[in-house]
């Protein structure tokens, strides 16, 4: 797969889409609004909305902050969704 750029790109896009769903689901499970999560992360509500809709890609720092906030590892969002994260 190292040399197959199209396949890597497809997997990255799938990972991003699954991550967006995982973030939204975790936020809702914890009873947080987008505004509340934004306050916790030090961003504005529109940033959270853009993360969840895929309009904005979060930085590695922001992704790690989400791991710390939710206490969950997002390295495999598919597993996170299947295990009820």
From TrEMBL:
Cite the GO molecular-function annotations of the record. DNA binding
Q: Which organism is it from?
A: Pseudoalteromonas amylolytica
| Domain HTH cro/C1-type, chain residue ranges per copy | 23-77
Q: Which InterPro entries match?
A: Cro/C1-type_HTH, Lambda_DNA-bd_dom_sf
Asked whether the keyword Protease is assigned, the reply is no
- Leader sequence range is none
* Protein's name in the database: Transcriptional regulator
Source organism, top-level taxon: Bacteria
UniProt keyword terms in alphabetical order:
DNA-binding
